[in-house]
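**User:** Everyone, produce a chain:

**Assistant:**
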Amino acid sequence: MKLSQRRALSPHGAALAAAVLLLSACSGGTQNTANSSGDAGKPRYGGTLRFYDPVNYKAWQITNTLWSNSNVTTNLADRLTWQNPKTGKIEPWLAESWTVSPDHLTYTFKIRSGVTFSDGSKLDAKVVKDNLDQHAFGDKKLGVAPDEFFANYAGTKVVDPRTVQVRLSKPNAGFLQVLSIYRTGILAESYLKKNWNDKGKLTSLIGSGPFVVAGGNGTTNVALKRRDDYNWAPKSSKHQGRAYLSEIRYTTVPEQSTAVGALQSQQADVVRNIAPDDEETVKGFGGRVEAFPAQGESNQLHISLAANAPTRSLEVRRALQAATDRKEINEIALSPSYGVAKSLLVHGTPKAPDGSAYLRYDPAKAKRLLEAAGWKPGSDGIRKKDGERLSFTLYVTPYYQVSQAVVEVLQSQWKKAGVEVRLKSPSMSQYEAEIGKNTVFTQGQLSRAEPDVLRSEWHSDLTNATYTKLPELNKLLEAQVAEFDPAKRTADIKAVQDYVLKNALAIPLYDETQVFGLRPNVQDFRTEAVARSQFYDAWLS
């Protein structure tokens, strides 16, 4: 039995679901269904795809990492390079070719000709330079902060209208991959000139992608329409020219039962992150469930060493690691669609090392470590030391739809070791206001199909997950990104993980995964390398 009651409908949710089903009965649906595996026929142009997302959209700056936002922006802004999600290889896109200097400090890119932004302006070397400079250096006058993914960027020189020369201060083995991720989409000069707040408006996103913004309030709904003159997709795409779909309509629907009901009644075509309990329901009415591991960090609890808490003790942190049963988390709170966490990195992420030796469930070890640290069981089973209860607050993180179920399982597991967990379920705005260096545990992950994502998360000059400077860890992180020999870099990445897990700075929970429910008429649905939906090749049968 699952610990959370996600399948129980509130009266409000039940009413919404009933309304969706009634609408379906009146309309008869809007699309004919077909078996996606065999009788769909040839791709056809036209149709409106309806995409339901459980999380409201926030400000629309291109670097916004919110899953709901980035599932939209991947379809608006093309990147210099494309990471093939099947092979992991970096391929040409807006940059049709490049060369790298022997010292790995200079990258010379030839920019694709004939590309335009949706406002009619042309892609050239200058706009590429201006995009990269603003990412790396920020712009104080416009209120734009530097993007931590662009560490060691030294500048870009325009060689000619179609050639740029990018300089790095230190070698970066993941630099070409940085240029392929959703947050580094190349945008028009009109976007770059706007201040931070104006960049956050949906209509400010002027890219060169296969779709353009057509409407929506940018908070609970977004409408995109096809660019009919688009003709510069990556060569590994299934087709070239304009996209098949005429429109994509995104709607936020937090109530899972309503979203699944809409999928069944043909009012929605794709639902992002359906609840684990609903996967069999979707399959039962003929829908499809497709799961995509989000390469990059596993979903984990980061531990702040700046917080005045018992977790400053290494023994306590290691005890909590040993008290965490990841297999049980998967079985109770999740589904087989999700991988059991065995590393700081999701399985399939390039060069991801196996960290199973640090992540074994061992409740006896957890109790021994807590005893050694001076925490003795109280009358109610919760441990105490010098009159203080071994008690923590865990936040239900609104970014992750499975967070409630996962932390409920964790609460039960840690209680067996004598650790009290109080759960707090804030709204999105409350969560963002409260989380900080004094928050002992923060559930999170960064997605990027490149192991250097660990540097973005853990280096004290970047995100700094521990809120504390750890010089030895910084050196390890810098060493792995400067190493281009594959075998040596693999060893360097393992050294980073060994440090983090040996010191129990993070508690991996599960492999971050995006699970989509689809109607059978949705064909050639794909995501980019970090599981954001890419609708260029998609079509409706």
Q: What stands out?
A: Confidence is low (pLDDT under 50) at residues 1-37. The two ends are 38 Å apart (CA to CA). The first strand starts at residue 48 and ends at 53. Residues 283 and 431 are 34 Å apart (CA to CA).
